[in-house]
Amino acid sequence: MGKTLAEKVWDAHVVHSAEGEPDLLYIDLHLVHEVTSPQAFDGLRNSGRKVRRPDLTLITEDHNVPTLDVAKPIADPVSAEQIRVVRANADEFGLRIFSIGDKEQGIVHVVGPQLGLTQPGMTIVCGDSHTSTHGAFGALAFGIGTSEVEHVLATQTLPLKPFKTMAITVNGKLPADVTAKDLILAIIAKIGTGGGQGYVLEYRGEAIRGLSMEGRMTMCNMSIEAGARAGMIAPDETTFEYVKGRDHAPTGADWDAALEYWKTLTTDSDAKFDNEVVIEASTLAPFVTWGTNPGQGLPLSASVPSPNDAKDEVEKVAIERALEYMDLKPGTPLKEVKVDNVFVGSCTNGRIEDLRAAASVLKGNKVASTVEMWVVPGSGRVRIEAELEGLDKIFIEAGAQWRFAGCSACLAMNPDKIPAGKRAASTSNRNFEGRQGPGARTHLVSPEVAAATAILGHLASPADLVNV
Amino acid sequence: MDKFVTHKGIAAPLRRSNVDTDQIVPAEYLKRVTRSGFGDGCFASWRKDPDFVLNNPGFTGTSVLVAGPDFGTGSSREHAVWALQDYGFKAVISSRFADIFKGNSGKGGLLAGEVSQDVIEKIWEKLEANPGTEVTVNLEDRTVTCEDIVAEFVIDDYVRWRLMEGLDDIGLTMKHVGTIDTFEKTRPTFKPKVQ
Ligand code: SF4
């Protein structure tokens, strides 16, 4: 029987395997950030161990970094301490680190791909659940806990039990106004936030093949919000084209060898998935979440659901609780929901293409006077690239704030918090209670919808601008 | 990780069920940047109560915790195990552990042994009647002994073997270091390097 893409990558990395024991898997790239690594380094120190492969380990500062006044010391003592410690660890263990102010600094999942460090067929881990992002290249990439971070630092391997596989096939072409973000939000709404539990999802089908690398990263990034361990997309010409010429991409004979191998990284036609979901692209529309988990989403043209629509008592209670936190009334058209803050950024939608998309909607328009909009590039490079293209001017002229790279308002760990009681349209990945700040309310949207919403002051898609 | 074969020490009776990891170590301690030093976070809220068992001078220097059912429920934080160990515990005996906690204990080198609630109750009585009573936890025989009570405890075979060998996950993997070396030699040269 043939193998799935995930199985091929897994099998190529098994260092040791024995009956009754987990497989020992080799890790090609270990990405590290300041929040989940300190105890791992301390563990190494306590046991007198070294980092086995500093050349396969990369650190970047992202979660705690401010996105304004980046030259000043970090005000919050806990954040400042985490940054101090990660720098000291990088120094002590001889690791490469991208610190605040470095043009390569940025969100760990934006940095890897843009440097060409993320390539097809690799195993990539990071102490961060959104490591699934890198699966867009046909890599097996997943988040790990702190003791696993220590394990990888010390051995460059991880003992793991194989994951199950699920195919998510998206047939046909996406309608012109539907983005990768809308597609993944629709998938999560369909299979639920636990639907992917224990699985590696492989996205396939015509609509997926038609996505750019940025779009594919958005999809794989949010796989974790469906409970999956990882998301993957088989590499193709779009992937090869993206990787080629980047700083760490193979060159010369290495490129040819790599390409030959990468082309084998597709699921065999006779392979079997443990589970399968099929979606027709033509049925999709711009999507937005109304509740407090990423599975609580609906087409933008729909209305706020009612607890009475619930299938069972558990869902009824969940809807009631979400509506109360979100301060929404059943039956309100989503497009009438007024928004105070708009955030474009994060490892889901903070790449150059996302900023281009937001800018193309904002160009020649103004952010509503009732709205505060932040645009936060995912990395220093994205920031430079955007400025070379003049995107920063479009944002600033429209009345949005143009900031420095970091996780920013994706999570309430740095100064960029959505104030309590405020409602945000956000291109990030989690709308949990308090995720963007205590008491903050979040609607997850695409960059296009975020920009249109900023202009109109209520949830809206670019199509609504034409009708004003 | 130290090898665990047998341990004798003062045991403390924790007469509670459903001790969740938030109680074992509250969230405010999670922002720390070190792996050690979580001892002061161990049962931090409960220790504010002067009547809490660990505040009884009779249990000073305790190293075996005897707790009620469903110990270690709630968030999966590995810090819970670190906090118990930093406080001085070598073993926790309970009538039932939460799965993730049990897994984390095995990884961290803290023995988590299960006995029936009957046995727990009997041990509690002895310890409360006589604070400072020592208990012997013998991993080789899988027994816990408190004066005239000798009870067998349940522990996963693989976890037991690892604890007895003093092997943490990393130590176990290190046994395959030769295989890792060989594997690395076969890695294609086109795979990227960071530096
Ligand atoms: S942008 Fe958000 S989701 Fe992504 S790594 Fe940062 S905090 Fe995590």
Helical stretch count of chain B? 8
Oligomeric status: heterodimer
CA radius of gyration of chain B is 19 Å
What share of residues are in beta strands of chain B?
Answer: 15-25%
The mean pLDDT of chain B is: 93
Count of helix runs of chain A: 17
What is the H-and-E element order of chain B?
A: EHHEHEHEHEEEHHH
Shape of chain A: globular
Strand content of chain A: 15-25%
Summarize the structure in words.
The complex is a heterodimer of chains A (468) and B (195). Helix content of chain A is 33%, strand content 16%. Chain A has 468 residues and is α/β, with parallel strands linked by helices. Chain A has a five-stranded parallel β-sheet, with helices on both faces. A five-stranded parallel β-sheet of chain A has the order 17-16-15-18-19. A four-stranded parallel β-sheet of chain A has the order 11-10-9-12. In chain A, strand 4 (57-60), helix 3 and strand 5 (96-98) form a beta-alpha-beta unit. The longest helix of chain A is centred in the N-terminal third of the chain and has 17 residues, at 77-93. Chain A is globular, with a radius of gyration of 21 Å. Chain A starts with a helix and ends with a helix. The mean pLDDT of chain B is 93. Chain B has helices spanning 21-24, 44-47, 79-87, 99-108, 117-129, 157-165, 169-174, 177-185, and strands spanning 6-14, 64-67, 91-94, 111-114, 134-138, 143-146, 149-152. Chain B is α/β, with parallel strands linked by helices. A seven-stranded mixed β-sheet of chain B has the order 4-3-2-1-5-6-7. Chain B has eight helices and seven strands, in the order βααβαβαβαβββααα. The interface between A and B is large, with 46 and 32 residues. Bound molecules: iron/sulfur cluster (SF4). Residues 62-63, 107, 109, 128, 130, 346-347, 407, 410-411, 428-429 of chain A line the site of iron/sulfur cluster.
Short recap of the structure:
The complex is a heterodimer of chains A (468) and B (195). With 468 residues, chain A is α/β, with parallel strands linked by helices. Chain A has helices at 5-11, 38-46, 77-93, 108-114, 146-155, 180-191, 206-209, 213-221, 237-243, 252-262, 313-326, 346-349, 352-362, 380-388, 391-398, 447-456, 462-466; strands at residues 14-16, 23-26, 29-32, 57-60, 96-98, 123-126, 140-143, 157-160, 164-171, 199-204, 230-232, 275-280, 287-289, 297-299, 341-344, 372-375, 401-402, 423-426, 441-444.
